[in-house]
Automatic annotation (TrEMBL):
Domain Orn/DAP/Arg decarboxylase 2 N-terminal span(s) in chain numbering: 86-342
UniProt protein name: Biosynthetic arginine decarboxylase
Gene designation: speA
Active site residues per record: C499 (proton donor)
A Pfam family of this chain: Arg_decarb_HB
Native source species: Sulfidibacter corallicola
Described purpose of this protein according to its UniProt entry: Catalyzes the biosynthesis of agmatine from arginine.
Record domain Arginine decarboxylase helical bundle: where: 373-448
Molecular function GO labels: arginine decarboxylase activity; metal ion binding
EC number(s) from the headed UniProt entry: 4.1.1.19
Group of enzyme by EC: lyase
Record PTM N6-(pyridoxal phosphate)lysine, positions in chain: K100
Amino acid sequence: MTNWSLKKANEVYKVNQWGLGYFAINESGNVCVRPSADSEHKVDLKKLVDELRQRKINVPVLIRFMDILRDRIAQISTAFKNAIVENEYQGQYYPLFPIKVNQERDVVSSMLEYGKEFGLGLEAGSKAELLIVLALTLDPDTPIVCNGYKDREFVQLVGMAHKMGKKIFPVIENYDELETFIAHYKETGIMPRLGMRIKLSTKGVGKWAKTGGDASKFGLRIPEVLKAVERLREENLLDSLNLLHFHIGSQITKIKVVKQAIVETLRVFAEIVRLGAKLEYLDIGGGLGVDYDGSSQETYSTINYTLQEYASDIVYRIQQICQEKQIAVPNIFSESGRFLAAHYSMLITNVPTVSSIGPCGLEFPHPDKGYGPVKEMYDLLEGLTPANSQESFHDAVQYRSEALSLFNLGYLTLPERAYMEELYWRIMRKVYEQAQIQGLLSPEMEDLEQELSDTYFANFSLFQSLPDSWAIDQIFPIIPIHRLNEEPDRIATVVDLTCDSDGVIDDYIGEDGPRHCVPLHSVHNGNNYYIGIFMIGAYQETLGELHNLFGDTHAVQIRIQGENQYKIESLIKGDTIHQVLTYVSFNRKELLHKMREQIEQAVDERKLKLDESAQMMDLYEEGLYGYTYFEE
Ligand SMILES: *Cc1c(COP(=O)(O)O)cnc(C)c1O
């Protein structure tokens, strides 16, 4: 309790690193949010959550800070603009938002609104996404790039959109699509500006490494590139080929890979130009990473470069190769979804229950009679010193496993086994405390730390709100949003409300790199303990699913207007139970009818009184209209 400070809180939770100035800890020990790193305005998150509760919007609630979206667009556009000025680059840069990252209506339309001054465009990867993009792009100068599989209907839609005057670039992802476009052209005379995605031999790094390389799912191999160019020439359509595209995967952790990919692509670009195509655009795909864990370690969750470095390296290399080959530089599109969307939203939830696995304070008699295994364990605890703590640890593990065998053979009573286990956990706690004092961080001790950690049952579903934590062990910053002026006195593992044993968060940010548990505060009876899960704006919001029928959480959209002043722009109530039931084809009326029949039967059989039957019916019906999460 002695040397805790807000500075220490920042070191433990690394808010200043991953928060990028959008998030910080204020003097009251609460997390606050700024619209941009240099803004004077900030909103206290704890205060906001309290005020939402007064509006009867309880946790879990997804909070979307739209100002952060605006700032992200400005950041990336400025970085490329700087690089363009510095290199006297003759082309333009346009950020594209790949909407698969977050298709929420307000996100897509805000991107368009805020991005207007930067020429922001949209990228669609499926027919459904294309339909969104076509309707929303009112400005004919807004670039549209279409990736993903394209059937005839897709090609027709794109052709018509082109005829309507939209700046639309369908990207040929596999060779057959080219034939579909040519056939469509022969029928209708319509040929939009085409893009072509190439397979690079450069592979990505980290989780998405397989997106690049020869075996990647999308893109034309080099022989196919040549075949496509010749095929277009044969049809007198080579002028339609306007854009070259590559995407080597998401969250690229190393700048080296970006540089390699650019060089390889530019060589292909220059060759296609030499073969006679009018390439005017280069689409460098997504992959610009964000720092989720604030460490500079070799993890998927962080990156070894800055935004400016990324933009500068790209612009510089394109410029160099174009100069060398004496060709005009292309305009640059980038499809950085994660970068644009990750920071703007967070989930705030509470912790209704905590359970601990360590010693439970069981009282037992002093085992000084006889030499039973209980006595051995007892003596181990009594004789534990800093010098023998490692040895005692190993002995205790062995005694415990022996005790279990004895119990299974019928030689140990239940009380004896209970005492053994209680003693075991007391020893473990002491050993762990010793290791901490001595700064001993062996893998054994790390495992022990996780074993001894408390289980914090948080009011949310990992599968609905944090799918990448479950699917790909992605780290997200998870920190209390208040009480940061108090030293966290517990070590915790956060689990969700689903019955799935996979509903556990396994990785957290740690002071010295990722770790398997997180320091949190004791939860005082009756008081809410709020934790925030940050940086979930990219992929999490729409990837989530209905495991255990936990539905969408409430979502509020906030615009920061001044010091603790904000406007709620929209407030969407989360799914009710009867809504999620319809997703799995249950019908409210039918359920009510079936329940009613059973309740009437129970009344008939005198198991329920009449008023009880009414109560049961009310409870059931209220349940159907309630939130899928834990309600107070
Ligand atoms: C997913 C995807 C993106 C977005 O990648 P981020 O890593 O989020 O920037 C961009 N382009 C294509 C083709 C994609 O498939």
